[in-house]
Each structure stands twice: as C-alpha cells, then as structure tokens.
C-alpha cells in the first residue's frame, strides 16, 4: 500500500510529497517485526532506486513468504531527484544534516521530523546511499565504533563486501542514521556504487542481503542465498591515496583487487605533453575498496582507499 509520509504545499501550485510503500502479510496480528528501507536522501544518489524496485517486485511476487512489515521509502528527497540536485533545491540544504528536525520548524526541519516519526518503532532500518560522481565504492556498511557491538552482527547478514568501522568522533549527529540509532532502532548505513548512476550487480547483491537479514529477523520465510563474508576494518587500517599533481587518472587496478606495498595502481597522464606526470603506488599491502571513477584529478584529489590489516 502506497502511503504519504508527509505532504506540503510549495509555490506555484507545486507540492512536496514523500511516499512509502508498505508491504504486509495477508493476516496481521500486530506482533510482526518491521524493517524500513530508506534511500533517495541525496538527489544525485540513484543506486537505491533499483534496490527499492527489485525488493518490492520480489516481495509482491512471493507475498506468501512475507511474515512481517516492510516499509520502503524510495525518495526522501523527491525534489532533489527530480532536479538532479544533491540537496534540497531552493533551500540549498543537505537533508542529511538536519535530523531530527522539528515539526514546528522550517519546511526542511518539519520534513525531517515527519520522517523520524514515521520510522519510529521499526525493528531495523537500512539507510542506503551512493558515492559521488568522482568515486566508486564497493558495497559496504559504515558503522560508528561505539555501535559496532550492536550493528556488526546485522551488517554481516547484508551480503556486503566490506564493513568500515570508524571513530565516533567522525560521526555527524545530524544524520538520519545517527538519530535512529539513538532511538534504539538499529540502522545500517550502506554505501555503494557511484553518483548519478545505477550499478545493477551491486543492487542485486544488496537485495539478496536484505532478504537474508529479513529471514534472520523472521520477516521473511522464503529461501535466501548464502551471503559472503565481509572484510571488517577499522579507521587505523585505512590508507588514503591522493594525487600529487593535476591531470587525468588512468587506473591499472580494479575494485577489490589485492595489492602489495609499492604496487602501481595507476598513472596520472598529461594530455597536452603526452607524458606521465605521476605514477601512483599503493602505500601498503591491502585491498582496493574505493577507486576514482571520474578521471580528471587535481592536486589533493582522492584517488583510492586501500584497506590493510583486514580481518
């Protein structure tokens, strides 16, 4: 059933309407567990659109296997998606920096509060994001260090390649994920793919993981696949590779390639002189999990992330 989460009138006879699709079993007793899948917070992150479509289709095609409530929110920022704008158009706001919001506040704050109110009471939530247009990320879950004991067991069920545990100091308290976790709703921040694109194989991978998570929570009683074992890392094991010169980056490795310290991962070429201005090498043994997608780089641009010392 498609429902309105919040609806507001805008100028020139326009409306801001955020909708969700609630999928339920035929017979409900009120004791069912509930999972929320949210995405479309940033208008230039589209990976979640395919995931929502695929989840809804597979659940509807196998509705007898549904044993709980699934709420799917494909577009928390519909104006941003419609205008290919990362933030909330007109207001020049990043929606993921205004939570928990305020029902009596300005429009964006009101919307944030209504989203929180609608998700309240869920047993678990998956907050799906994509990277920007410059970097491609392998499917991963990002978890604050202070939440690792609670969230890592759930994250392992999601069929992701990587779980990134980062220091609590780097966590933004104005994000949806932070605020839901503060309300004791276990919320997994998933990031994958690249901005303004859809990577179908990543979407299929996550959909398999969501069904596996739902099975473990007794929301789904259908068959699920055996999920992969993710790499788990902490911040101190992260190695960032940045460009020392401007130019065009040409990679010589792929995502999830295992590299050795000193191994070449690419070159920055000069299209005017025909020369190689920099050869880029890995600073450690490890695995490539972030790689430059947009080839034009400037001094300081992030080229790749290599995770070493994984477990």
Give a concise summary:
By secondary structure, this protein is α/β, with parallel strands linked by helices. It has helices at residues 47-61, 78-82, 107-119, 148-155, 176-182, 200-216, and strands spanning 2-9, 15-23, 34-38, 69-73, 124-130, 135-144, 162-166, 187-193, 231-234, 238-242, 247-251, 258-259, 264-270, 275-281, 286-292, 296-297, 302-307. The N and C termini lie far apart (42 Å).
What is the strand content? 25-35%
Provide mean pLDDT, rounded: 95
Determine and state the CATH class of the largest domain: Alpha Beta
Query: Do you know the CATH topology of the largest domain?
Result: Aminopeptidase
The number of domains is 2
The overall strand count is: 17
SS element count, helices = 6
* CATH architectural type of the largest domain: 3-Layer(aba) Sandwich
The CATH superfamily name of the largest domain is Zn peptidases
Order of helices and strands: EEEHEHHEEHEHEHEEEEEEEEE
End-to-end CA span: 42 Å
- Helix % is 10-25%
Residue windows where pLDDT falls under 50 for at least 5 positions: none
The major sheet is characterized as: 13 strands, mixed
Q: What's the Cα radius of gyration?
A: 21 Å
- The backbone outline, from C-alpha atoms, is globular
Structural class based on helices, strands and sheet pairing: alpha/beta
InterPro entries: AstE_AspA_cat, N-alpha-Ac-DABA_deacetylase
Cofactor: Zn(2+)
Pfam families: AstE_AspA_cat
Organism: Clostridium saccharoperbutylacetonicum N1-4(HMT)
